[in-house]
Amino acid sequence: MTPKATTDADSAYFLAHPLTSPLLRDKSYTQIPGGSALHHDPFFRRAARTNSAVLKSAFIFRALPNPEGHLFLQVGHGVCGQSGVAHGGFLATVMDEVSGNLIASARLDEGLGMYTAALNMGYKRPVLVEGYDLVTGEGNGDGRGSVVTATARLGRVEGRKVFMAAEIRDESGELCTTAELVFVKKKPVL
User: Fold this and answer.
1) What whole-number distance in Å separates Cα of residue 97 and Cα of residue 43?
2) Which residue ranges make up each domain of the chain?
3) What superkingdom heads the lineage (predicted)?
4) Second label for 115, Cα 20 to 30 Å away, from 43, 86, 156, 157?
């Protein structure tokens, strides 16, 4: 599949959605144009942004008083492991992506970049993707997919380590997945 380009239509889509609209309208957040942080993640952009997986995306963050970021995704059947259920590996990637976007955007990495050192996931309930019958696996929706919101918050910073907490909520706002992450800041090149 050919990756789709992120457009202002993505932001307009999320502004019209009842779950994401209040956060996008909150003036304490900054929206990153194109839905990606200062450090582009080619894996996420190439692998997930297709005509059937990540259909639309937007990222907002605030650095003060406590760093927090939100990644809004409209997802389709291409993210499913089982029929109609988002793959757990995809959800782990989303947790890493929202946390990395927050770190880069809030400059918690001091511009050096970071590596993911640990990612501990907790799966609370499945993230259902609209348009698929869970019993038959057949398409039954209008193909618009589902909206998920991934949120990352700074826990603490200890030397070169940054500790984050993240979560994913489904289209109805139900908590589906949680994560604790540890990132390590890259050493400066001398």
Assistant:
1) 10
2) 8-185
3) Eukaryota
4) 86
